[in-house]
Predict the structure of Holliday junction branch migration complex subunit RuvB.
Amino acid sequence: MTGPTGPVGPGADRLLGAEADGEEQAIEAALRPKDLGEFVGQERVREQLDLVLRAARQRGATADHVLLSGAPGLGKTTLSMIIAAEMGAPIRITSGPAIQHAGDLAAILSSLTEGEVLFLDEIHRMSRPAEEMLYMAMEDFRVDVIVGKGPGATAIPLELPPFTLVGATTRAGLLPPPLRDRFGFTGHMEFYGAPELERVIHRSARLLDVEIDAEGAIEIAGRSRGTPRIANRLLRRVRDYAQVKADGVITQEIASRALAVYDVDGRGLDRLDRAVLTALLKLFGGGPVGLSTLAVAVGEERETVEEVAEPFLVREGLLARTPRGRVGTPAAWAHLGLTPPQGTGSGGVQSGLFDG
């Protein structure tokens, strides 16, 4: 997920090493669609959101609060900016982890202007006191500011101008029902198919003034893990390779050679993904093996393996989570060109290490 100052969450940009510098962030901002017509993919969410915004404009009212959920890099931040643009309103960007006290939220809310859009990224990570204050702000456009402590404390009501809250979360299940129910519109962002990613790549290539053929776009799209942000990052790295090592034109061959340099294989797996699979299959015979043991084997934190590598590996059908531990699937053995041990069925040993 991208926050107001860059990527949020462990390993958010590990495909390409260190966090993007100022120039890279500026390029990312330039590639963002400016309205719903330019936004590629998420047709259902776009159609529903368009109705919500059009109706609000016709009424001359502030748009309902919007909750966007889905994996990092699918366009939640971009949609929040589009909502503000479509409503002709300014946007204020912050994140859940930055709001640790109710006073932090009160300071932000009290400075909003009428109709302003407040984008709250990773809303599920907001502190509980701030969360409870947000309930009243969303519903009644009012907050109670507590002055003093103990028996002498006084609640001073503070009226707020109507505003639109756009909350983004990668873990919608962690939002308490009272908060979820206060959003007038909830949209779930799906992973992109290859044709949609090809459209994203061609659009970005035009904006970057990069020449790319259809096969080159197909090659990059197939390794982009269903995520536009990754597609754009890979496009920029392939552009660099084509500029330095070739004539600047991105073809299938150039894209394939460039992505091999950056350790992104044909299915989009990177160094960490392959390290997890290799350890699981070679060291533990395909599993089952506990998450902590697997993390130690690849030299990463448990949370990094669980939150960064595993979701994509599970989605690709290369790894399975079982009550006894992680298990490599037949597709994982085939992808790494390995032969599973005899008599293990799905490729996992019958007695593995399990530590949660």
User: Anything to note?
Assistant: The CA atoms of residues 206 and 212 lie 9 Å apart.
